[in-house]
Amino acid sequence: MTDTPELPQADDRSIVERAKAILLKPAAEWPRIAASAETPGEMITRYAVPLAAIGPLAAFVHGQVFGYGALGFSWKPGLVAGLGSAVATYVLGLVGVIVLALIADWLAPKFSGVSNRAAAFKLVVYGSTAAWLAGIAQLIPGLGLLGLAGLYSLYLYYLGATPVMKVPQDKAAGYTAVTIACAVVLYLVIGGVSGAFLTMMGSTTAITTPDSGKVSGALSIPGVGKVDLDKVQQAADQLEAQSKGEAKAVAPDALKDLLPAAIGPFQRTGVESGAVGGLGSNATGTYENGDNRFTLRITDMSAVGALAGLGAAMGVSQSKEDADGYERTGVVNGQMQSEKWNNADHSGSFGRAIANRFMVEAEGDAGSIDQLKAAVATVDAGKLAGLAGQ
After folding, report:
1. In angstroms, rounded to a whole number, what is the distance separating the alpha carbons of residues 231 and 218?
2. Rg of the chain, C-alpha, whole Å
3. Mean pLDDT of 53-64
4. Where are the alpha helices (H) located in 6-151, listed in sequence order?
């Protein structure tokens, strides 16, 4: 008697159950997803359509209730304009999922995986769960940092590459790196679209090495710039090291030792430190001089520092300035850096990433932004970067 091969089964769980499973138990859930009999159309309509609406809807409500503001200037978008923007973002986001799935399918054989259109949709649709759910952070002011939870989707893509796309484990990081690069470029382009349609054409000098599963070179996108795939690869390596338990957050006491006792006329009046398991740690010193007071904080972002690496890879930059002050974010010497200053109350912040993992930031009252920059410079960047390997 011949055994009948087991056929793929439809997944009849609710969308909530499936989202919880991929977020809480991804290693066990990906093989189940890989074996399911869903079609791309079913995944889009039953899963992507409702979840992809979270971010645009939250942004729309935020704009109508709280409005937006920067440097003392605030505004609220009109109802029609806000709704139109939300609908456009939603529709283009779904288009982005489809395009990214096609890219993931095309890339898989280049990393010794298998080209399978339905599998590629599984990887992108279910791997995007964390990013979609993190969109709720746009709803209420002050929850913006929770949007970093969306980075978990990068880890989900990495975990799903082998069971879903059959990419060998030793090449999963390289495959994920290129997929991330394409995703970042794709959504930057989508985010800048205000018309009815867009075209995305570019040239690439990227080099892939099939034997190692690594990528290098640059991806050139007209109107966007160049994506440094070497930095993207570094970010993917950070995620891989974290998944294997190789990247441990530095002990808070080690960070605390790098905080100086005094910075010019400012004396240290307090120190705080803490950690979240092996995922991150920080140490903060408080410095005072008369009425002026600022904090100097050193944060080990561990694998989440991959965000800083991706920002540097993309050459991300932003600048706002008016009579009251300015805000600037950009890449300096290959690392993300940001500064903000308010002329009225002589307060601001200056921060820079180190080794695409640590963040050193001074924030508070000072005579000028130069004092905050000098405070950050007191932390020995070489010693801090050296702690990553311990």
Report:
1. 10
2. 23
3. 73
4. 15-24, 26-35, 40-43, 49-52, 54-65, 79-107, 117-127, 129-133
Q: What does the DSSP assignment read for 224-285?
A: TEEEEHHHHHHHHHHHHHHHTT---PPPHHHHHTTS-SEETTEEEEEEEEEEETTTEEEEEE
Task: Choose between 141 and 325: higher pLDDT.
Answer: 325
Q: Which pLDDT score is estimated for 252? A: 87
Are 61 and 54 in contact, with CB atoms under 8 Å apart?
A: no
What is residue 312's predicted lDDT score, i.e. its pLDDT?
56
Backbone angles phi, psi at 321, to 5 degrees: -155, 140
Same domain, 265 and 298: yes
Is residue 38 domain-shared with residue 164, that is, in the same domain? yes
| Domain membership flag for residue 190 | yes
Higher pLDDT, 187 or 341: 341
Instruction: Let me know whether 176 and 259 are in one domain.
Output: no
pLDDT at site 263: 93
Q: Please, which pLDDT band fits residue 262 given cuts at 50, 70 and 90?
A: very high
Length of the chain, please? 390
d(CA 377, CA 390): 23
Q: In terms of domains, do 201 and 293 share one?
A: no
3-state secondary structure of 142: coil
Helix (H) or strand (E) holding 329: strand 325-332
How many domains does the chain fold into?
A: 2
Q: Cβ contacts of residue 83 below 8 Å, gap of 6+?
A: 60
What values do phi and psi take at 389, rounded to 5? -90, 5
* 27 located within any domain: yes
Residue range 100-129, pLDDT digits in tens: 888 888 888 988 899 999 999 999 999 988
42: containing domain: 15-243
Q: Do residue 225 and residue 307 come from a single domain?
A: no
Specify whether 218 is located in the same domain as 273: no
Q: Other CB atoms closer than 10 Å to residue 350's CB: what's the count?
A: 25
Question: Which residues are 329's β-sheet partners?
Answer: 318, 338
Q: In the structure encoding, which two tokens stand for residue 56, read together? A: 């645009």
